[in-house]
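Journal club prep — side note

Before the paper discussion, L.F. wants everyone to see what a predicted structure for a comparable chain looks like in token form. Sequence:
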Amino acid sequence: AVHYIDVGTNGEQALNLHGRRLFCSTAAGPAFEGMGISCGMRAAIGAVEEVNTDGYDLKIITIGNTPVRGVCGSGLLDLIAALLRLRVIDYSGRLQPPEKLAGISPSVVSRLEIIDDQPAFRLNSDIHLTQRDIRQLQLAKGAVRAAIEIILDEAGSNSSALDEFIIAGGFGASLDPESLEIIGLIPPGIKDKIRFTGNASRSGCARLLTDVDERRFIEKGLQEIEHLSIEQDPDFIDRFVAAMEFPEY
């Protein structure tokens, strides 16, 4: 069984299970691409692209190793995953007040502030991760995770049956499988089955234009696809709300 997903604004997904092909899409919004959040930017010089933690402190890495100018999609996922590991963010997505934090670096705790009446985590004097930014990520990952569960259920399967979990998207290769599991975007236990394909729509179009056999294979396969209307699934809202929460770490 192979599950395919395009991590982006529209969140297209497909599942190939013993020759049965199911397809769905769900509106995830632009947060995965670093847009729609206060500190967001495209993957360019100065964008936070990776965040690591040893359980005590943070290491923030930007593209070009320059001062922080903003956060791109992969950096947003990494940053929130690291803050979850440090328990600076709780499973509901709430930034914790400094007085509730113990056992982590004072330099991390000192970054917590109140900006425009909402909690925020300071990256530098100009760039912050706000409570609203975290909520935007929760909305995006909740929609994608709910769709994953529904398409697997429709196939009468579950994530443990997957042989491969293929992630496409322009920034897909920059994502950290462990961060995806920590924030709950993917089901637990499949991070080692992930394979990144990058901008598959572009490479796929090139193959279709240059290889007649590939084009005929796709045309035949399209006739066998079962489309699921996620928005009409009676369980979607309940699954979406549940998936907005982060796994308890």
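L.F.'s comment for the group: The chain is about 30% helix and 20% strand. Keep this in mind when we get to the figures.
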